[in-house]
Amino acid sequence: MKKLINNPERVVDEMIEGFIHAFGNDYTKVDGINGIVLKHKKDKVGLVIGGGSGHEPLFLGYVGEGLADGAAIGHVFAAPTPSTIQGVAKAVDSGRGVLFLIVNYAGDVLNFEMAAEMLDMEGLTTATVPVYDDVASAPPERIHDRRGVAGFLFVLKVAGAAADQGHSLDEVVRIARKASEATRSVSVALSPGTIPGSVKPSFTLADDEIEFGMGIHGEPGIKRTKLMQADELTDNMLDYMLDDLPFASGDEVCVLVNGLGSTTLIELMIVNRRVSRVLAGRGIAIHDTVIGNYCTTMEMGGVSISLIRLDDELKRYYNHPAQSSFYHNMHRQER
């Protein structure tokens, strides 16, 4: 498969090197590991994110003001090692504890838990909050088994604001969990992604097929169906999400229409048009909309939709200014 790479074994190392060359005024690489941290550490709860590469700009692109303080970077579709996570946590710690905000995948959960145990032995207090927003990956009665996908961005936005405002570790954990419980996502794949160095795509689809509920590593969804028009597909995606929380008339939400890597903005805007109409028809107000490629699967074709249901508290944290290399939300005004 055609890729602009050198050695497949050095893809992550060279990606990080390129990132630092571009954004080195604000970020630094942690010595000896694939970790990125802000250059200027604040006196607050440290917030560390991380996971496998291949989902850019998640994770390294969301280290910034009002967001994460550091990111532990794994190989493509592989969790970062416990030692990498440990090194990033120590680099961001200011003595007020560190929150690990992670996507709910077995490898990530295991490695972050191992890192937490190692840090505990060194006297560094940590807490972990997993994000499990993918409604297609498990039924509501097993919500904690669900995968974390693009809705992670909304939970990070809220948790990062809480940490930035100087709250204790326990309070930041409470707010992050509340945001995670209020977030839902569903994804649809139109075409596969490819892993650097691989000679085959991660899965195959016929020209007239889509995979409904696809995971961010190419995990099978809940059904494979024929390609349909954008409005019909968007309606089907929203049906899964809106009844799950459930979302109801009078609610206020933020919307993320996320491309999986190769989807054009034209397509994402068309999907968002339908999302806006459906939500308005159900009496659900939109506080903010984010459109673009924020959580990808290499160059997979497809789209995910994420919603976070706001209350006054979550809305206040969502409106807090945030800026990183690939995400900017400097102020929100009431519509």
SSE class: alpha/beta
Shape descriptor: globular
Uncertain spans: none
CATH superfamily of the largest domain, by name, is Dihydroxyacetone kinase, domain 1
- Structure summary, number of beta strands: 15
Order of neighbouring strands in the sheet with most strands:
1-2-5-3-6-7
What is the CATH top level name of the largest domain?
A: Alpha Beta
Helix content: 25-40%
CATH architecture of the largest domain: 3-Layer(aba) Sandwich
Return Rg in Å. Answer: 19 Å
Element pattern in H and E: HEEEEEHEHEHHEEEHEHEEHEE
The number of helices is: 8
Number of domains: 2
In percent, how much strand structure appears in the residues?
25-35%
Alpha-carbon distance between the termini?
46 Å
What is the CATH topology assignment of the largest domain?
A: Rossmann fold
Query: How confident overall, as mean pLDDT?
Result: 95
- Summarize the biggest pleated sheet: 6 strands, mixed
Question: Can you give a write-up of this model?
Answer:
Helix 4 runs antiparallel to helix 5 (169-181), helix 4 packs across helix 8 (312-318) and helix 6 (230-242) packs across helix 7. Helix 7 (265-281) links the parallel strand 11 and strand 12. This protein has helices spanning 11-23, 82-92, 106-121, 152-164, 169-181, 230-242, 265-281, 312-318; strands spanning 27-29, 35-38, 46-53, 64-65, 70-76, 98-103, 126-131, 183-191, 209-212, 223-226, 252-259, 285-292, 301-310, 322-324, 328-329. Helix content is 31%, strand content 25%. It folds into 2 domains: 11-181, Dihydroxyacetone kinase, domain 1 (Rossmann fold, 3-Layer(aba) Sandwich), CATH 3.40.50; 183-329, Dihydroxyacetone kinase, domain 2 (Hypothetical Protein Tm841, Chain: A,domain 3, 2-Layer Sandwich), CATH 3.30.1180.20. It is globular. It starts with 10 loop residues before the first helix and ends in a 6-residue tail after the last strand. The protein has a 6-stranded mixed sheet with strand order 1-2-5-3-6-7, sandwiched between helices. The protein is an alpha/beta fold and 335 residues long.
